Amino acid sequence: MVLLGFFCIWKHGSAAGNPNSVRSLFIAMNSATLSGFDVSPGVGGLNDFGQWTALILIVGGSLFTMIVGGLAVIRIARLPFTDGELILTAFIVESAALLIGTSLLWDSDRAPFQALFLAASSFGNCGLYIANLPAASELPVHAIVLPLTILGGLGLPVLMELWCAIVFRAKLSAHSKSVIVASAWIYVIGLMSILALNHAGHGGFTWDGLRSQLPTCSVLAIESRTGGMAIAGISDLTQPARWLLILLMMIGANSAGAGSGLKPTTFIELFRGTKKLLSGQPPTRSFAIAFIWLAVYLALASFAVLLLAYVSGTEPADNTLFDAISALSNVGFTASPLMDQKGLFFAYSAIILIGRMAPLMILWWMADTTNDAEMAVG
Description:
By secondary structure, the protein is an all-alpha fold. Helices cover 69% and strands 0% of the residues. The protein has 14 helices and no strands. Helix 1 (2-13) runs antiparallel to helix 3, helix 5 crosses helix 6 (139-154) and helix 9 (207-227) runs parallel beside helix 10 (239-251). The longest helix is centred in the N-terminal third of the chain and has 29 residues, at 48-76. The radius of gyration is 20 Å and the shape is globular. The mean pLDDT is 92.
């Protein structure tokens, strides 16, 4: 899919008939992995064919992640859904998100295709866009874009269970309960922490300052968990607030969702397993997988930092760490504008591809080897 998209963008998608193969590869990889790094000229500089290709890659990447991850999750958590039901639901949910999102985002400032693209990126937790984004304080952001991002990041099995709970009054599994509760707490703690750390670095607390920064902090608390939409900039954040964003990017969204990262359930399993060890009980296999996944992620993050430091050479160390975690978790935030450099494009393409595939591999490893898990890891 990535190679076909790359060829279409390279040969036919540039507004200038453009021959820049490396940038075309980066745009295709960026779209298919749902990463959303901003590069100029990016998706907005493509012609209509190129933009449609990018849209298809985003939708295809969303379906791929939800289906491949979802098939593993229903086996791990032993959910009462068949493979066919999950695959069909993935197409229904994606279609509904595009239809509803487009109808709500289509207005005088946004053409139908631009609204469709923004809806696909929002639900796919992809930061790409082709028109001006609404400001962080505007209603469409909090009523449409962020809810789509949250739904896309919950994970397809959780959405299926929520539907069954609402329509048929079925009980939620331990996996879905953990995902929903953890996601809510991470948002609340992330919002309050970003607000406190950022406001404290700008001369102390005032009610007017809190009210003005609240929409931006709310956006960052959600988009940092692999949404990556550049609705709220990070350039004005204090250094402690940026370090907190690194932690949120590492946590990421949830298994079988459009986002990436370590996943909240990984930390829940690590906490439970550690508690059992301290109380003298044997840990479960899920704890071991969560521990190995954390170690693998940190090793990959170290590799990403070294690779970006070698390629860029001039970026401060904290910026390189920020960009590396953003790439590995398929977020799309950057501490400084992305340079138009061939080696940098290749480095980012490799990191975001690994960041997309690694959690899915962990999920399927767990699905194949664990039969007593309550929740998915990866």
